[in-house]
Amino acid sequence: MKFTDLEKIRVEKIERMRQAGIEPYPTRSEVTHTTAEAIRLFTEGEQAGRTDPVQVTVGGRLRSIRLMGKVYFAHIEDGWGRLQLFFRINDLGEEAMEQFREFFDLGDFIQAGGEMFRTRSGEITLHVRHYKMLAKAITPLPAAKDEVVDGEVVRHAALTDPETRYRQRYADLAVNPEVREVFRTRARVVKALRDYLDNLGFLEVETPILQPIYGGAAARPFVTYHNQLKQNLYLRISFELYLKRLLVGMLDRVYEIGRDFRNEGVSYKHNPEFTQLEFYMAYADYLKIMEITENMIAHVAETVLGKRVISFNGHEIDLTPPWRRLELRQGILEVTGIDIDAHPTADSLAEAMRAHGMQPKPGYSRGKLIDSLLGDFLEPTLIQPTFLYNYPRDISPLAKSMPGNPQITERFEGYVGGMELCNAFTELNDPLDQEQRFLEMGRDYNPEDEERHPMDEDYLRAMSYGMPPQGGFGMGIDRLTMLLTDRHTIREVILFPHLRESGE
Prior knowledge:
The protein is of the alpha+beta class. It folds into 2 domains: 5-140, CATH 2.40.50.140; 179-323 and 384-492, BirA Bifunctional Protein, domain 2 (2-Layer Sandwich), CATH 3.30.930. The chain is built from 15 helices and 21 strands. Helix 6 packs across helix 7, helix 7 packs across helix 15 (477-485) and helix 10 (328-336) crosses helix 12. 33% of the residues are buried.
């Protein structure tokens, strides 16, 4: 390791500590309470009128040190909060006080034990009777300073550069409590989703991440190689085809929360690996799934945040059901003036787009052109929760067609805050129709196209045993967390987002 001059000073302190018989990285700690538990115990005792001392041993990072002659004040911070420490030479002795002054720095993990009290200024504090080093920090954390402005605590943190924050998430978490709260919220979101689906009788399952044939979405996969089996395998781009196999096996309601991997571009709402929720429900259609979706998201918001009206990107958004329903054709017509049903071919639709001053990409299929109209013009307008429904078959290879209209499928996407949140179908369960869809996908896309969907013979075999009618649903956990924490890039809600190599 290469050290800066300041780091070299701390490395030298480690050597001097060991020479003095002090271990800078002891094997054991004796922590009995978190800072929050210690404060709560003391507060409860005050309220109850108890006078017996509250004895605790806490641990955490040193965040401030004030040396005041024979008295020291410090603050430590753990994952639950911050607590003031009070050191006095009369209690600890001159040697212990001198060792604290000489060896302990901001950022070190320490342990301190004693009794709780309240200072004359009213701050709940630990009167330290014993302390020790738990882990010496060699590299100083980026400085953070708090000040009170108009009664509110304002934090001035040196670690604000997004690139550095994402690359050194450990430092970001250590100095920015609000970042820690984002990921606690994310964990509560996942738990609330699980609880909701479990209460509806769904079974949580796990399906393969390494797959011999990728499918279930339009995306380019990551490819790896199995040395023993001598075969290429793909990191999954979706759980869909495996989860739907389980309905053939009479597991009527299944869901999975896990990682998907897509070898495609990155953006404020895309990361190469992301966390997905998918569920499939026998004997349901997309209308039933709409109802479940709006109730599930409202339940998660209320459980996690205690409210259904949230703020996102400057907008106040009401997640209370029922959500707005809007046919895709009507939505595109309203924002662009183009009726996609009047243009049954790619050439006709591209010409209509040019007539409206747009520049469609050459060689795009009709489905891709419709998708571009949706993404470029309609999606940004969908701020309040909206279900867009009834999608062209061109862009829905796994969805069941509407009765009497084979070119339109029973599919919806949920939009909130101007971004897509979820996707759902009345699932195709006719193996002959599914085989034809696979063949059509193979003809419509060349072998290098990232949206080419390979034929999956085993999935067709599963369908041929009989697959019940069903509704299916997929949603990115990352985007839902963005929405509920008012974060505007996916990198803010993924602990370790993928980044280019440093310096590129």
